[in-house]
Design goal:
This protein is α/β, with parallel strands linked by helices and 432 residues long. It has 2 domains: 247 residues, Glycogen Phosphorylase B (Rossmann fold); 162 residues, 3-Layer(aba) Sandwich (Rossmann fold). 40% of the residues lie in helices and 17% in strands. Helix 1 links the parallel strand 1 and strand 2. Helix 4 packs parallel to helix 5, helix 5 packs across helix 6 and helix 9 packs across helix 15.
Length: 432
């Protein structure tokens, strides 16, 4: 029988933080605990953290998880306060602002002097707490997850001193992350960032990512042991999906939940909306947006379609919305072709049975996931007409009373429970 594991997880994002980044390790911890293991989490106190999305509904998922919170110093909170008089309201999410002179100066400082990222001020506090726990408990394995990738430097320091088995989780790429592209950085800052990444990757016992082949090829070229890289998708929690009922919304609904910024591939969707023009043609088609949505992007869409903007909603509410959808849309980040990033929400989208249109210029990994659903597809720069025709076809089917969701019975391998078993297998492999 496999021995149960005591795992120290170092994660900046943890409830009450909201958004998709927090959910990966919240669910891993939930199912590690259910399977008899002992996850121990070190995170930042919410009043010291630099995140502006909060979801208190997630707290119920971690009630029995041993959690330690620490102080932090964060450049982004200072940035937000100077810009708006509030420590959290203007914290950037998924982009680095570059509009005003102030933005340009702070962007320059952040990219060249806060390496690898501006949340590195948390490291000394988290490391002290980790040392305290390691000295008092028999830890089998440590896990660090990023972004922020500065968190991995905590793991590197622990690894060197205590020789514990160490798993590095790259939720997003590090030196290849899209927001580092097309911005001025000194060569010394690039070299330092690359060296830090190299030290972390080489020093780890296992590396897990949310995407596969293309990104794994990039990583394998950076390390000596090519066999320590593994893929574990973000999944969906079947127990949560079974519990939540679809939101009651009238009309034919195209739904998006999550973060939508100018850095996303939304242009083709807007082209399709211009072709359909539900407002002009009096179609009962509505676009429902929930999450952190850029106002200019929203205003662009609203020229052609009626929008129901929900703002940021809890994860439970987001699931209710996507379960109410007739079509789901997803927008990947621009300039992510190199790593083929996969949006975690695609898997939750799949679980609803609604058709999905994923907007991306390159999406081999996404295509693998979308192939599980016969009506779902990836849309690139040449797909405007196809998207418009698909929406009209599904809308006419709905108007005629023939619209049906798909009954997907091939998603067991994407449940949070199964993915946690995959994680345990990796930990046991590096321990043996």
């Amino acid at each position: 029988m496999t021995n149960k594991l005591k795992i120290l997880i170092i994660t900046y994002y943890w409830p009450p933080a909201g958004g998709s980044g927090v959910q990966r390790w919240m669910y891993f911890s939930k199912y590690l605990k259910k399977m008899g293991n002992s996850p121990i989490v070190i995170t930042v106190k919410s009043n010291y953290a630099s995140y502006n999305l909060r979801d208190n509904s997630l707290l119920k998922e971690i009630e029995d998880i041993e959690t330690y919170e620490t102080k932090s110093f964060d450049f982004l909170k200072l940035y937000s306060y100077i810009k708006s008089g509030n420590f959290t309201s203007n914290i950037p999410q998924s982009f680095i602002p570059y509009d005003s002179i102030f933005d340009k100066i702070t962007s320059f400082l952040r990219l060249n002097f806060f390496i690898p990222d501006s949340r590195i001020g948390w490291n000394k506090y988290a490391y002290r707490k980790a040392e305290e726990i390691i000295k008092n408990q028999k830890i089998d394995c440590i896990i660090t997850t990023g972004p922020p990738h500065s968190s991995h430097l905590i793991g590197l320091k622990i690894k060197k001193k205590y020789k514990l088995k160490w798993v590095v989780d790259l939720r997003d790429p590090w030196t290849e992350i899209f927001y580092l592209k097309n911005r001025f950085r000194f060569n010394f800052s690039k070299k330092i960032n690359s060296k830090l990444e190299s030290n972390v990757l080489e020093g780890s016992d296992a590396i897990i990512t949310t995407v596969g082949e293309r990104f794994h090829k990039i990583l394998s070229d950076k390390i000596s042991n090519k066999n320590k890289i593994f893929k574990i998708y973000n999944g969906y929690d079947k127990s949560v999906f079974d519990r939540i009922q679809p939101a009651k919304i009238d009309g034919f609904n195209i739904v998006f939940t999550g973060v939508l910024s100018k850095n996303h591939n939304y242009d083709i969707f807007n082209d399709a909306l211009e072709l359909i023009n539900p407002k002009k043609n009096n179609y009962k088609i509505r676009l429902i947006l929930a999450g952190s949505i850029d106002k200019e992007v929203k205003d662009l869409f609203s020229k052609n379609i009626h929008i129901n903007s929900k703002g940021y909603v809890s994860h439970d509410e987001a699931i209710g919305l996507i379960k109410s959808s007739n079509i789901l849309v997803n927008f990947t980040y621009k300039n992510t072709e190199e790593t083929d990033m996969l949006s975690g929400k695609l898997i939750e989208y799949l679980a609803t049975g609604s058709p999905i249109i994923n907007f991306s210029e390159h999406a081999e990994e996404s295509k693998l996931i979308l192939s599980l659903s016969k009506k779902s597809f990836n849309a690139d720069y040449s797909s405007g007409n196809r998207v418009a025709e698909f929406i009209i076809k599904e809308y006419e089917s709905w108007m005629n009373g023939n619209y049906k969701k798909q009954n997907l019975n091939n998603l067991e391998f994407l449940t949070r429970e199964k993915l946690t078993k995959n994680l345990i297998d990796i930990i046991n492999k590096i321990k043996s």
